[in-house]
Write a structure and sequence with these properties.
Distance between the termini: 33 Å
Order of helices and strands: EHEHEHEHEHEHHEHHHEH
Structural class: alpha/beta
Number of domains: 2
Oligomer: single chain
Number of strands: 8
Shape: elongated
CATH class of the largest domain: Alpha Beta
Number of helices: 11
Strand order of the largest sheet: 7-5-6-4-1-2-3-8
CATH superfamily of the largest domain: Spore Coat Polysaccharide Biosynthesis Protein SpsA, Chain A
Helix content: 40-55%
Strand content: 5-15%
């Protein structure tokens, strides 16, 4: 890595007005430290991506940009979700940076881990994953559900890095390869490992959220997990098929047993077992149809090939903005 390599920080934001002043302050201090130590170029930038916030987030980003060009902004036309907002930021900077680091705006990711990421990039890694070393700050319930989440994802065929979210360094070459993944149903934690290239891990301790409310409560995390599984793996359909075969053979055994009982004159009215069987099979059928429908819905969305995001406003260096217009990235 040369000292003129440009680092662009990409920070998705959704209703982050409470934390943005502190986040911008700490990130600016970190980038200036790296610039002074000649680890990165003085042209390195911090890019906040506003994902259709309903509070004062975008106005604050505009003010930060006016005060210091180190801050840039990308405003999406409407709320598209964390993964799409993150991708929008990464794709905006991929042609104007040498390396990018993505992280959330809530300051739970350790900013000091950026030094280790840059060092590992210097040693040849093109993707560096920020991985939590422990979960001491989590409640037992949060820790148990989070660990179960990662284990379930891997068992279901979604190859993700354990205890890693979206805090990662990617070289511009890795970003170019990421741009080749055109699916609408985004799950970057599973897509990035598919790129390959040389990877490394930077361990850090995750802090409490500095301010504001979490954007991923338990129910949303479950939705996110299901989205990841169905976007990256067909194993749920295979499980349904296996369950269907098991039920068929079980019903065949029950049929033989029932015939034997009938011809030996030991038939006993089985209202309870019949009702339970009907409800059990009916429930399994509905679940199976729901899972299959989820896959069909994803196929439906993919075939439409709708844009994953639309950028309404870009605040950056004039030469970068013109370059992005020349390649028809910005309207």
């Amino acid at each position: 890595m040369a000292k003129n390599d440009k680092l662009f920080m990409v920070i998705p934001c959704y209703n982050e007005q409470e934390v943005l002043p502190e986040t911008s302050k700490r990130l600016k201090e970190k980038l200036n430290t790296l610039i002074k130590s000649e680890k990165i170029s003085p042209d390195s930038r911090i890019v906040f991506v506003d994902d259709g916030s309903r509070d004062n987030t975008w106005n604050m980003i505009e003010e930060l940009h006016k005060e210091d060009p180190i801050f840039q902004g990308v405003k999406l036309s409407r709320n598209r979700g964390h993964q799409n907002a993150l991708l929008a930021g990464l794709m905006t900077v991929k042609d104007i940076c040498d390396i990018s680091i993505s992280m959330d705006a809530d300051l739970q990711d350790d900013i000091n881990a950026i030094d280790g990421m840059v060092e590992k990039y210097e040693n040849g890694a093109e993707i560096v994953y920020g991985v939590r070393s422990q979960r001491k700050t989590d409640t037992f319930f949060k820790r148990y559900t989070a660990e179960s989440y990662y284990k379930l994802m891997n068992k279901m065929g979604a190859d993700i890095v354990y205890n890693h979210a979206d805090f990662r360094l990617m070289s511009s070459r890795a970003l170019d390869f990421l741009s080749d993944f055109s699916e609408v149903n985004l799950f970057l934690r599973g897509i990035v490992p598919m790129i390959g290239l040389k990877t490394d891990v930077e361990y850090y301790e995750r802090a409490e959220r500095f301010a504001g409310e979490s954007k991923y409560p338990l129910f949303k995390m479950l939705q996110f997990a299901f989205e990841g599984i169905t976007s990256l793996s067909t194993k749920p359909i295979k499980i349904i098929s296996g369950l269907g075969v098991f039920i068929f053979f079980t019903s065949f055994i029950v049929l033989i047993y029932s015939l034997i009982r009938h011809f030996t004159g030991a038939t006993i009215p089985g209202w309870t077992t019949t009702v339970l069987s009907v409800w059990a099979i009916g429930g399994l059928t509905m679940i199976s149809l729901g899972v299959i429908g989820e896959y069909i819905g994803k196929i439906y969305l993919e075939t439409k090939n709708r844009p994953r995001y639309i950028i309404s406003t870009y605040l950056g260096d004039k030469e970068d903005e013109q370059m992005l217009r020349d390649v028809k990235f910005l309207k």
